[in-house]
């Protein structure tokens, strides 16, 4: 019995030891025999102060150099020799570098590209060299594999000159690919040459004529029969590769899926990234700013791969944004709005100091559409980062991400920069070098937790996966070093031994896998550029065969797919580089296979009948104009500008011809514009006033066409907003224009004379007296953010025989006085008592719900959602679940932001912190402390806070000091009591669906992830596909956000299809709804018995789409009709019709119905009804 117990105990210990191991196990050098160390030795002439690229590191590669079926290892050395390690099995490696003759010939070796350049079945090595002078010390090296010697060791001969590859222009990496589709492999050379006499971050005119020494190169493969091998010819200029850059990363992919390879280049410093789109005629055009709305700033390594199994490649590139608060506060520079101004002046694209992940959302007009989502995905900040290597490391069917990072001398440290600026000229260089901080970091590991076809999301599993040792890491590569079906990886480290990580996934799961070696045609026998589609038990995988990825490195050239629990592979389709397709059926899992190009078989894919797209774009020419105002000059700690919210759109019949017209609001110094619809569906443009006439000029935001005086034509109310002037400026006066036979005349004395910077205006006959009353949102107190503003109820006095409105807040809704920063509101009957209730949303606010009891508005405080404080932007309503009451869609900031951490509460404190009689405010956010725990810290750096309160600099002399102060400590040090401080909070960031539960209770449900990638403003609710369920078209973004985090620009327009359960996002390929700009307002207009969607974009064109699903019948509503019961297939649901709904928007008040409707019963505010029956 004792023996059994000991046995059980021993087994338990063994089991615990096995299961306690992490996914990755770092192999000791004493076991592997890998002692490579990329040691950098500084001296007086070669140091980080004189040469900023001293610590950019070397590359790594995994390949089978001796064709024995085991993957070997290669590292490049900067000041040390390159090393090659032959895999002897059982995680033993033999250093054969000297015999193999690959040491580097005294070069500063950077990137390594593994390529069978002469197509003899033996892997060759191309080394990119830089840094050293004279030229001959930095000419690239080409090691031709001569085969193995008598001891089985591969031997190489350097032959770069013979192949035309001895480039000496500071090439740091190379990518081989077939750019001209002639069947052989050409090469793109990434060039990066420092110039100590020019500031790399100084704005100037770009060099775009190919004359810059920092111009990359394209070399064409020309086979020379006499030589018996290729010779590479420089075709850079004739190919159009003419734009300079500090290149650090390059990856080749057919991004637009036209069968021709494109090139993505990550450029450091100010120089923009380049996306060379192949023109299919031997030339390329840079379309980076056309494809990507912004990129990383100090761009380093990159990778292009499909993260969410939709067959569309994402693009990830790395930068230097730290993950923890201390590093953020000691590294980040101050925000400067001149960056945006100079971007426009010198035609630079937008760039931000953080990792960027461009998710491919599908195609519009044959162009891929991207959304940058790194913050939502959880990978935006990994500090001084170099290599993103991507593979399915746990074999669960999704590609994961590992990032290398670190830097021995952090010359971006703000305290060091301050010290250097002040006394550098009095200090010895060796003293300066000795005080520069180091950034020694753990690599990051992120497990992919996305869903198929969904938004790409990651979980930080660095510790969980066993990556615990801080290093100065640069190049990295992965491959299956022990042939067990999972991907191991290696890392090239500065001043430390290289890492070799063994993958133990088989000990943690029973996931399956397959490895595929492709054998292509002559001249490209490794089939570089081929793509593979895998179908397995209803799951789909896609991979583009390209080993040159990450940073300075080459991955093993064997395709690896993790298969999760799939037991079989139904089919696999290879798209060979020449356009041929081979299909293979019923492949076994957990096997390594070789698939050879078969020219006798060309699989023809079935052409699917594509469904009719929901929308078709139409052209209504208009561009919104607005003068740029820099809010941050007045309040430097704003999360976003407050002067950039327009335009608004209002749809109604203006001239009495029963056709929908619309008005789009103007801005300061620019008139608003009417668009009058003709019978043929075209529009005539008419300005409200001349742009040269500044009498009426203001920042127009919310606009409303409504019949205020019951004379059967629609008048125009314009809300004046913005933040350009102080709160007493006359430009904040709202305006009412009277419709006089189609001419609009500014009224006098009809609306109260109040000054308010507002946003929306909404109308309803809330008091049931037969005329339309107004709610006007108070958005802000100008230049005094976040002081709560007052919103207004304007009661129409027409029933009393007076043509005027009165402010009745004190009488009916005193809660609206100083209610907050209101963005939007909706008049709605949420409790089905046939009275218009009011729901108000705004920044730092709950969703405020006010019940109309007939005399006053009473707030419904215990409503189920009273504890959700958000940056709420907009609200719209419909009976989505068809239960007879109105539910709501509310737009918020979303999750693609640094402000969101698991919906923890962020705070803003406001007070006169410095005693200068002006109100200050301090914003916060959650960041990690130095131990990795999230805490609430000041959001901005000391640079920004001292602009608000100069005493901050005195309290925190060093940036390091400010980097350790929590937000609570900062407020305490201001020495104010609670009565002197106003506190605001946000604890919810998602855009949401609010389900009406009845009895004044509501429930919040997040909209799908696709709706959380940016701010949501405009929303349109309608049954777009005719299935009987209301759908939603969302627009948003905010180009006025603070420049450190960058613009909210990821939303390209989104359609959510309703169904009996919830909402399903529809791909842009199928909807064709594309609103990529700074979209604010959105409205529906009826034209020729169909709907047209209008989208107003700030400082951009008006977007307009026709809904392709035909409606059958239209019903025009009277001004006082606002609710209908709709009877459809024997069931009833409720529909409301608004005078203004969603952000700055008013849609048509005509109903378009289809044949599923039996009848509708329409209710007016005076409780009269009419029934409309249909007989289609």
Commentary on this structure:
A hairpin with a 3-residue loop joins strand 34 and strand 35. The N terminus is likely disordered. This protein is mainly β and 1176 residues long. The protein has 16 helices and 79 strands. The strands form 21 sheets. A five-stranded mixed beta sheet has the order 44-43-42-41-76, with no helix packed on it.
What is this structure, in a nutshell?
9% of the residues lie in helices and 38% in strands.
Main sheet: strand order: 44-43-42-41-76
Mean pLDDT across residues:
93
> Percent range for helical residues?
under 10%
Largest β-sheet summary: 5 strands, mixed
Quaternary structure: single chain
Structural class: mainly beta
Q: What is the straight-line distance between the termini?
A: 85 Å
Q: What low-confidence regions span 5 or more consecutive residues with pLDDT below 50?
A: 1-19
Number of strands: 79
Please state roughly what percent of the residues sit in beta strands, choosing from under 5%, 5-15%, 15-25%, 25-35%, 35-45% or over 45%. 35-45%
Radius of gyration: 32 Å
Principal-axis shape equals globular
Total helical elements = 16
Task: Map the helices and strands.
Layout lengths: L1 H19 L3 E3 L2 H4 L27 E4 L8 E4 L7 E7 L2 E4 L1 H4 L7 E8 L8 E7 L10 E8 L5 E5 L1 H4 L7 E7 L8 E6 L25 E8 L4 E6 L11 E8 L8 E7 L5 E5 L5 E3 L1 H4 L3 E2 L5 E4 L8 E4 L7 H7 L6 H9 L4 E2 L3 E9 L2 E6 L1 H4 L7 E7 L8 E6 L8 H10 L5 H7 L8 E5 L9 E3 L12 E7 L8 E6 L5 E5 L8 E8 L11 E6 L2 E6 L3 E2 L3 E2 L4 E6 L4 E7 L5 E7 L3 E6 L18 E4 L30 E4 L8 E4 L8 E5 L5 E5 L11 E8 L8 E7 L13 E6 L2 E4 L10 E8 L8 E8 L11 E5 L8 E3 L1 H4 L8 E8 L8 E9 L2 E5 L4 E3 L10 E2 L2 E5 L8 E5 L14 E6 L8 E9 L5 E5 L3 H7 L2 H5 L3 H4 L4 H6 L9 E5 L5 E7 L2 E6 ...
Parallel strand pairs: 18-21, 31-39, 41-76
Antiparallel strand pairs: 1-30, 2-3, 3-4, 4-5, 6-7, 7-8, 8-9, 10-11, 11-12, 12-13, 14-15, 15-16, 16-17, 19-20, 20-22, 22-23, 24-25, 25-26, 26-27, 28-29, 29-30, 31-36, 32-33, 32-37, 34-35, 37-38, 40-72, 41-42, 42-43, 43-44, 45-46, 46-47, 47-48, 49-50, 50-51, 51-52, 53-54, 54-55, 54-57, 55-56, ...
């Amino acid at each position: 019995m004792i023996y059994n117990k000991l046995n059980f105990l021993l087994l338990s210990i063994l089991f615990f030891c096995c299961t306690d191991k992490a996914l990755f196990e770092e192999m000791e050098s004493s076991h592997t025999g890998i002692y490579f160390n990329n040691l950098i030795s500084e001296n007086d002439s070669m140091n980080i102060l004189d040469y900023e690229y001293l610590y950019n590191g070397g590359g790594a590669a995994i390949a089978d150099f001796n064709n024995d079926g085991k993957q070997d290892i290669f590292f490049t050395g900067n000041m040390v020799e390159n090393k090659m390690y032959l895999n002897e099995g059982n995680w033993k490696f033999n250093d054969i570098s000297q015999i193999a003759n690959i040491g580097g010939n005294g070069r500063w070796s950077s990137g390594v590209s593994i390529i069978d350049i002469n197509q003899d079945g033996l892997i060759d090595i191309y080394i990119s060299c830089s840094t050293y002078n004279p030229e001959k010390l930095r000419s690239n090296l080409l090691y031709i594999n001569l085969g193995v010697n008598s001891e089985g060791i591969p031997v190489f001969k350097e032959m770069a000159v013979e192949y035309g590859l001895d480039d000496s222009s500071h090439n740091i990496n190379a990518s081989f690919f077939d750019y001209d589709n002639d069947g052989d492999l050409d090469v793109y050379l990434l060039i990066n040459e420092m110039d100590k006499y020019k500031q790399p971050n100084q704005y100037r005119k770009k060099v775009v004529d190919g004359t810059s020494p920092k111009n990359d190169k394209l070399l064409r493969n020309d086979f020379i029969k006499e030589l018996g091998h290729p010779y590479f010819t420089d075709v850079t200029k004739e190919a159009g590769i003419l734009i300079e850059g500090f290149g650090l990363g390059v990856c080749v992919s057919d991004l637009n899926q036209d069968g021709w390879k494109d090139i993505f280049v990550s450029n450091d410093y100010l120089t923009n990234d380049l996306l060379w789109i192949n023109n299919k005629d031997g030339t390329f055009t840079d379309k980076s700013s056309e494809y990507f709305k912004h990129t990383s700033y100090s761009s380093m390594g990159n990778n292009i791969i499909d993260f969410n199994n939709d067959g569309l490649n994402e693009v990830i590139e790395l930068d230097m944004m730290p993950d923890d608060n201390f590093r953020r506060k000691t590294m980040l520079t101050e925000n400067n709005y001149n960056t945006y101004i100079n971007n426009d002046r010198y035609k630079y694209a937008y760039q931000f100091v953080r990792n960027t992940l461009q998710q491919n959302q599908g195609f519009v007009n044959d162009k891929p559409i991207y959304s940058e989502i790194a913050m939502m995905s959880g990978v935006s900040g990994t500090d001084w980062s170099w290599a993103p290597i991507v593979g399915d490391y746990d074999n669960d069917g999704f590609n994961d991400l590992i990032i290398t990072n670190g830097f021995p001398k952090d010359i971006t440290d703000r305290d060091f920069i301050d010290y250097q600026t002040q006394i550098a000229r009095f200090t010895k260089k060796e003293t300066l070098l000795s005080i520069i901080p180091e950034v020694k970091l753990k690599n990051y590991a992120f497990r992919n937790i996305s869903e198929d076809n969904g938004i790409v999301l990651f979980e930080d599993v660095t510790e969980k996966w066993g990556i615990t040792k801080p290093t100065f890491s640069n190049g990295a590569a992965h491959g299956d070093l022990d042939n067990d079906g999972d991907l191991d990886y290696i890392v090239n480290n500065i001043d430390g031994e290289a890492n070799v990580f063994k993958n133990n996934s088989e000990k943690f799961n029973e996931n399956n896998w397959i490895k595929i070696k492709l054998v292509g045609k002559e001249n490209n026998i490794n089939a570089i550029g081929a793509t593979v589609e895998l179908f397995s038990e209803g799951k789909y995988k896609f991979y583009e065969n390209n080993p040159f990825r990450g940073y300075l490195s080459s991955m093993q050239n064997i395709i690896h797919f993790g298969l999760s629990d799939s037991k079989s592979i139904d089919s696999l389709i290879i798209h060979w580089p020449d356009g041929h397709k081979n299909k293979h059926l019923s492949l076994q899992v957990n096997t390594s296979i070789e698939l050879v190009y078969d020219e006798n078989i060309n699989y023809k894919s079935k052409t699917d009948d594509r469904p009719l797209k929901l929308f078709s774009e139409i052209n209504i020419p208009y561009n919104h104009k607005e003068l740029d105002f820099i809010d941050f000059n007045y309040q430097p700690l704003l999360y976003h500008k407050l002067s950039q919210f327009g335009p608004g759109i209002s749809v109604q019949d203006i001239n009495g011809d029963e056709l929908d017209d619309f008005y789009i609001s103007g801005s300061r110094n620019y008139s608003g514009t009417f668009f009058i619809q003709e019978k043929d569906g075209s529009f005539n443009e008419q300005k409200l006033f001349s742009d040269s006439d500044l009498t009426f000029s203001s920042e127009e935001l919310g606009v409303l066409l409504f019949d205020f005086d019951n004379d059967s034509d629609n008048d125009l109310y314009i809300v004046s907003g913005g933040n350009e002037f102080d709160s007493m400026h006359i430009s904040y006066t709202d305006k009412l224009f009277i419709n006089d036979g189609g001419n609009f005349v500014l009224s006098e004395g009809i609306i109260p004379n109040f000054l308010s910077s507002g946003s929306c205006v909404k109308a309803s006959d809330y008091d049931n007296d037969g005329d339309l009353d107004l709610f006007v949102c108070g958005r802000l107190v100008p230049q005094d953010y976040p002081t709560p503003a007052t919103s207004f109820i304007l009661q129409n006095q027409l029933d009393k025989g007076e043509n005027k409105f009165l402010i009745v807040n004190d009488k009916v809704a005193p809660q609206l006085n100083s209610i907050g920063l209101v963005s939007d509101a909706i008049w709605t009957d949420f409790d089905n008592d046939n009275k218009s209730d009011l729901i108000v949303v705004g920044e730092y606010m709950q969703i405020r719900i006010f019940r109309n009891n007939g005399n006053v508005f009473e707030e419904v405080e215990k409503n189920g959602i009273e504890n959700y404080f958000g940056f709420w932007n907009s609200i719209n309503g419909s009976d989505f679940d068809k239960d007879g009451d109105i539910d709501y869609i509310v737009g918020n900031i979303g999750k693609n932001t640094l402000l969101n951490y698991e919906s923890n509460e962020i705070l803003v404190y406001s007070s006169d912190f410095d005693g200068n009689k002006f109100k200050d405010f301090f914003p916060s956010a959650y960041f990690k402390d130095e131990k990795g725990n999230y805490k609430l810290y000041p959001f901005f750096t000391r640079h920004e806070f001292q602009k608000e309160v100069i005493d901050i600099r005195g309290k925190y002399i060093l940036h390091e000091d400010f980097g350790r102060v929590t937000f609570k400590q900062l407020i305490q040090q201001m020495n104010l009591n609670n009565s002197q401080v106003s506190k605001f909070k946000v604890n919810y960031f998602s855009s949401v669906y609010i389900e009406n539960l009845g009895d004044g209770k509501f429930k919040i449900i997040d909209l799908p992830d696709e709706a959380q990638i940016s701010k949501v403003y405009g929303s349109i609710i309608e049954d777009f596909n005719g299935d009987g369920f209301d759908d939603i078209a969302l627009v948003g973004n905010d180009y006025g956000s603070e420049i450190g985090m960058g613009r909210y620009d990821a939303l390209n327009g989104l359609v959510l299809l309703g169904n009996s359960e919830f909402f399903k996002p529809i791909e842009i390929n199928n909807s064709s709804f594309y609103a990529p700009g700074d979209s604010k307002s959105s409205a529906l207009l009826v034209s020729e018995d169909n709907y047209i969607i209008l989208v107003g974009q700030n400082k951009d064109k008006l977007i307009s789409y026709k809904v392709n699903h035909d409606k059958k019948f239209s019903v025009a509503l009277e001004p006082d009709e606002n609710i209908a019961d709709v009877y459809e297939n024997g069931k009833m649901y409720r529909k409301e019709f608004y005078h203004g709904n969603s952000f700055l928007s008013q849609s048509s008040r005509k109903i378009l119905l289809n044949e599923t409707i039996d009848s509708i019963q329409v209710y007016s505010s005076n409780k009269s009804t009419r029934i409309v029956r249909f007989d289609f």
